[in-house]
Amino acid sequence: MTTEWRFIQAFAQQFRRCGLHDGETVVVLSESQSRVELVETARLAAQSITATVIEVVMPTPRSAHPVPVRSTGASQAIAGNRSVIEALRASDLVLDCTVEGLLHAPELAEVLGGRCRVLMISNEHLDTYDRLGWDEDLPRRVERAHRRLRAAATMHATSPAGTDLTVSLAGAFTAGSTGLTDGPGSIAHWPGGLVLAFPAAHSVNGTVVLAAGDVNLTFGRYVESPVTLTIDDDVIVDIAGDGLDAELFREYLAAFDDRDAYATSHVGWGMNPAARWDVLALYDRRELWGTEVRAFAGNFLYSTGANETAGRFTAGHFDLPMRHCSVTLDGSPVVTDGRLIADLAEP
After folding, report:
1. SS3 of residue 176 by DSSP
2. Residue 98 DSSP one-character state
3. Is 39 helix (H, G, I), strand (E, B) or coil?
4. Burial level of 193, CB count in 10 A (0-12/13-18/19+)?
5. Contact 33/99 with Cβ under 8 angstroms?
6. How many CB atoms neighbour CB 347 within 10 A?
7. What backbone torsions phi and psi does residue 315 show, to the nearest 5 degrees?
8. DSSP label at 290?
9. Which residue, 113, 211, 276, 307, has fewest beta-carbon neighbours within 10 Å?
10. For residue 46, which of 2, 3, 79 has the smallest C-alpha distance?
11. Tally of CA atoms within 13 A in the half-sphere of 54 that contains its CB
12. Nearest-CA neighbor of 103 among 85, 116, 118, 91?
């Protein structure tokens, strides 16, 4: 696939929303296995706004794991390279086109310490950005939801399938993803529309039941048979289910031989009404990174793996957006039966 003018226009509009203007320096960061059309579109869109655009391309590193690692948000492409880090720090805007993205990369804090801002362009098929368009009111609604999450002490998620999960939010790191950077030292991922908490250690207990139609984004597939996860003191201690989904779940996590791969990474819910649950049925698995599915309005997202807030670091990771759940904060609903409450939904 090659880029087209409409994609360049859409990217340029998003970059302007992130404050890009003539005279700023932009670094387009990619790796050898990046999606070529994303890199090309980002470069051309940035060049249409400002004259100083630099491309940094790193070799995709060799895998250090026995199984493929997907959708972690923790790119290893920079690999601690000082020249690359300094180039990013010295820029005004980094357009992150690495495969996994810099959201949880080990170099991110140092890069942002240079006061640049980072827009992580999710590794999606280009027409994802065409279809989703831009919702001018989305940042306001996400911020409203984030304020409620930030102020809450407890999150509780339930579902007709049997999910009953309690999350203490004391000491949690929370974030609202709008798709927009927020000045120097900020990072955003695009597409946006997600509210998340990374709970502190010893904060998550209960049961998560993946039902037919829920999504395992690491595998890029819909769940077809129930999987029941028992979570005790943050960690999955039992994976029950007789079908292929449970077997794949058990085998994949076991391959890392790492207890932290079974622990809770983050929890939250989707806020983007334009994002669709059914897109996995319409693309090849390698064509999507899955941000759209994480963000579809009203899903409850439970994830396993790395959680910096709890001091856990691992490459084992599952993102599990679920439908038909209800989510409350201190007893007040934010999602009911898979639908956002009225003042968090479209105006």
Report:
1. strand
2. -
3. helix
4. buried
5. yes
6. 9
7. -90, -15
8. S
9. 113
10. 3
11. 14
12. 118
Residue 191, H or E segment: none
Q: Which amino acid is at 210?
A: L
Question: How many CB atoms neighbour CB 6 within 10 A?
Answer: 12
DSSP state of 199: P
The answer for 184, left when phi > 0, alpha when psi is -120 to 50, beta otherwise, is beta
pLDDT at residue 346 in the model: 78
304 near 136, Cβ under 8 Å?
A: no
pLDDT at res. 347: 73
> How is residue 236 written in tokens?
């999955």
- Amino acid identity, residue 13? Q
Q: Hey, how many other C-beta atoms are within 10 angstroms of the C-beta on 1?
A: 12
Residues whose CB is less than 8 angstroms from the CB of residue 132 and which lie 6 or more positions away in sequence, other chains included: 191, 272, 274, 275, 292
Question: Three-state SS for 294?
Answer: helix
Q: 160-176 burial, b if ≥16 CB within 10 A, otherwise e?
A: ebebebebbbeebbbbb
Assign 102 to helix, strand or coil.
coil
**Tokens encoding 2:** 């090659």
**CA-closest candidate to residue 205, choices 225, 187, 231, 186:** 231
Q: Which residue has the tokens 């004259």?
A: 51
| Angstrom distance (rounded) from CA 306 to CA 308 | 6
CB of 197 closer than 8 Å to CB of 156: no
Q: What is the pLDDT along the chain (347 residues), one digit of tens a residue?
A: 788 999 999 999 999 999 999 999 999 999 999 999 999 999 999 999 998 999 999 999 988 888 888 878 888 999 999 999 999 999 999 999 999 999 888 899 999 999 999 999 999 999 999 899 999 999 999 999 999 999 999 999 999 999 999 999 999 999 999 999 999 999 999 999 999 999 999 999 999 999 999 999 999 999 999 999 999 999 999 999 999 999 999 999 999 999 999 999 999 999 999 999 999 999 988 888 889 999 999 999 999 999 999 999 888 999 999 999 999 999 999 999 999 999 999 77
Question: Shortest CA distance to 35 belongs to which of 105, 96, 103?
Answer: 96
